[in-house]
Amino acid sequence: MNRRKIFLNESEMPTHWYNIAADMPNKPLPPLNPRTRQPVGPEDLAPIFPMGLIGQEVSAERHIEIPDEVQDIYTIWRPSPLYRAYGLEKMLDAPVKIYYKYEGVSPSGSHKPNTAVAQAYYNKQEGVKKIVTETGAGQWGTALAFACAQFGLGCEVYMVRISYDQKPYRKIMMNTFGADVYASPSNRTQAGRNILDDDPDSPGSLGIAISEAIETAVQDESNKYALGSVLNHVLLHQTVIGQEAEKQLEIAGDYPDIIIAPLGGGSNFAGIAFPFIGQNITKGKNTRCIAVEPASCPKLTQGEFLYDFGDTAGYTPLLPMYTLGHNFRPAAIHAGGLRYHGASVLCSQLLKDNLIEAVALQQLECFQAGVVFARAEGIIAAPEATHAIAQVIREAEQAKKEGTKKTILFNMCGHGFVDMKAYEDYFAGALSDHQFTESDLKSALGEIRELQP
Ligand SMILES: *Cc1c(COP(=O)(O)O)cnc(C)c1O
């Protein structure tokens, strides 16, 4: 019988997170204070993050211990299964073995609780009462709401307007876990009111919602802010995915030639790829790691490596990253988690150093791939995850053309059960591919040139 899924025991779970900064040939550049243009110190970040996370943000240690309480909550859904995609392989009829790590088994249905639980833990440790955050498609908000419930913390979420309207059930999930949810831009913050003055029908963006969440968090000392992607400590927490996959592939007797994951801010890509990139750097392995972004928000393939704000209002430090400019307004695609103007500092530096690759795909090809995958494997992918599947299919076709055998691992970072509106629109022919204009991009990038040190 074909062995379709490979499980680990709880006792085989990783006990440490892997910090790729320790192994990078070029270390990430420091974030800058936008006023002084000097590197930010811990005191700059202390109003919004607990010290436990600030320490991880700047750590040079290769392995960081996962607290027992966090490991204990991880066992609700971890270790997550690794599947061999026999159904998809058969359908593609190419010389490839395809494996996928399935993070849809978590309480919120994606990889996000891996960091949400860790972040809630360090906030609780330092006496925080409530965490304020933003969410795009609703995945991060749901994950943090779950994590806050585990630790008895309050949770307030600014949800990007377009997703709030498209995905009402995500809001109810957050409410069920105990969180308060507001559509962003909202009238509750100055950042939100400024946007609404300009455009009362604004569909919102992650950048705007981040501004609203930070503004709210800093108004009360017992509150802190949390980010679901982009920052070093968030990517760090996700490395449990790749570490488990390494062990599971060892059981299968395989090692990946290619790793593929969608990239919004970079956390699920980092989670599955960083442990293997570490092997590339330190052990001379040669795994190609491909980040897949949407063609409507292509920071890695069409953005520039510049210092930019992480949010629209300019409340965050300046981060050195591939960016489209913090005022870039991506089209309202269904893969809301990929609608972010920049890529994490760690992923950006790795791309700059040619240690990872990037491709941009249109949404119709991705939904088509999602439907193929559902019929072949029985799992309905989140719209974000369909980007990885589409690239897997491209790589399989390439291998067939070349007649070379390949082992492919990809991150099925979430299920799409709460995204059925997206599939409904796809089947109704209501979705289209998106092209932004060169002049939109030029002006969004132009605005940030003056921010450079
Ligand atoms: C949030 C999210 C993403 C994008 O964020 P990353 O930090 O790049 O992983 C992708 N897929 C799913 C399912 C998500 O919830």
Give a description of the structure.
The structure is a single chain. The chain has a domain at 5-10 and 67-109 and 233-444: 3-Layer(aba) Sandwich (Rossmann fold). It is built from 19 helices and 15 strands. Helix 4 (86-92) crosses helix 16, helix 5 packs across helix 11 (232-238) and helix 16 crosses helix 17 (383-402). It is globular. By secondary structure, the chain is an alpha/beta fold. The mean pLDDT is 96. Helix 6 links the parallel strand 6 (130-135) and strand 7 (154-160). The longest helix is centred in the last third of the chain and has 20 residues, at 383-402. Bound molecules: pyridoxal-5'-phosphate. Residues 110, 112, 139-140, 229, 262-269, 337-338, 382, 384-385, 413-414 line the site of pyridoxal-5'-phosphate.
What is the subunit arrangement here? single chain
Please provide the count of β strands. Answer: 15
Distance between the termini: 60 Å
Output the CATH topology of the domain at 5-10 and 67-109 and 233-444: Rossmann fold
What amount of the residues lies in strands?
Answer: 15-25%
